[in-house]
Each structure stands twice: as C-alpha cells, then as structure tokens.
Write the structure tokens for this entry.
Amino acid sequence: MFGFIRGTIDEITEDSLIVDNNGVGWQIFVPGSLLDGDVHRGDEIKLYTYMSVSENAIALYGFFTRDDLEVFRLLLNVSGIGPRGALAVLGTLGSDSLRFAVLADDAGAIAKAPGVGKKTAQKIVLELKDKFALNDAFEKKLEHVQQGGQTPADAGSSAADEAVQALTALGYSGTEALQAVRKADVTPDMDAETVLKAALRNLYT
C-alpha cells in the first residue's frame, strides 16, 4: 500500500521509529542495525515500507534501501518466518552478509539472530539458496559500498569479499571460497591479502 514514507523522526523507540509525515506520526519497525546507526530525533528520513496485516495487528516495517525491503520480502516467504523474525535476521546480518551466509551454507551465522534457531536458519539457507547468485551478491555489495550504504553489520567485510573473489578467480567454487574465508576468523584490521592467505591454508588443511 505504501511504497515509502518520508518525514521527520519524532521519536526513537527500542525497535521502531515514529516518523512525522505531514502531522501524522507513523510507527515503523526497523532493523536493529538501523537504530544503532546515525539516526536522531529531528532527522529527515525516507524509509521503504512493508505493511503487515494479521488478525491481531497492522504494522509497518521500514528499510533504508529497496534491496533490504526485497530481501525482507524473500525472508517472509520462508515457512515459519514472520515479520519480526525477518527483521531480526536483517538487523543482525544485513542483506549483503545474509546473501553470503546463504550461499556458503552458513546457517550458524544466521542462527545468531535473536529468536532464530538452528533449524529455522537451516530452512532459510535451503529455501533462499536458489534466490541468490554469487555474482549478484558481489554486485550488490559493491553497489552498497559505493553508495555509502553499509550497515554496521556489513562494515569491515570488504577484505573478506575481495578474498572470496580472488579464490573464485583461481577456480574454487563460490561455496568453497566463502566457507574458507569464514573459517579464517576475519577481523576488521585484516587486509585482503592476509584474509586470502588464511583462507588458502583452510583449503589445504
């Protein structure tokens, strides 16, 4: 019903923003990573929205980018995942990291989201794997970096992404590359070369 809502942040709650749009205060539930970012009362904001209608409530969910909204919609199509669960996954991982986690069969990373158990995380991997492609994941990541649209959950992961690209260029499958890099215990101070060396050790041990 609403493509997006633009307005001024009137209030910030534990899990939502109250956005004043022409004198109407819309409560919009947002990912936790958005609330942890640089948002303040009085800021003008534009959120791409999804309206959830159930027997008990009508709720609006909002995202900074159309891509996050699209990934949120994909998560809602996973059996057993409701709007709150989908929001928790995006708040923990962000759309870029979720793509890489799904492509790498890394259910453990997804299970770190509040309220998402191991079985649910495995279901997300299973049901979304054919929705994502490695090339698209890299393109989206690069697009977000160029636009300055990284979320805190995605920050510091560019070195890991470069290492994955290098491994795939060497002939390893996307899944092999992603799993090897994830085992490298990447930290924000590591550059791509260091990550690549650590990942290669994982592939040969």
About this structure: The longest helix spans residues 83-103. The chain is about 45% helix and 20% strand.
